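Chain A, query sequence.
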Amino acid sequence: MTKLLPYLFGALALIHVLPTMAVLMPARLSQLYGFEAGDAVLTTLLQHRALLFGILAAALIYAAFNAAVRWPVLIGAVISMGGFIVIAMIRGETGGALRSIVIADVIGLIIAAVAAGLLWKAAA
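Chain A, predicted structure.
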């Protein structure tokens, strides 16, 4: 079952790499998040968010092939996805343009839970 772990980390990386494209294509941000593209400050902040997703995606890819870093990278991914869901729920922003992001993060958390279970079982 531990042979499944690289694929799980790869799936998590894919979830995080897709929004990373917004670093080079800021027009995608308005499609992803449903806001007016003319807001320069918001565009800058969301491009920075996309860059951070790229860093997390790179760490997830690295963890797919390096067992020693899997736990800390997985914890970082869970905090990122879980944190977004909690913030979106508190603000009542789980629908509309953010719905697909919430769904992707829920799927990501399920994948992360399976990975954590396999990591836990392998350590026992």
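The chain has a mean pLDDT of 91. Residues 2-123 form one domain.
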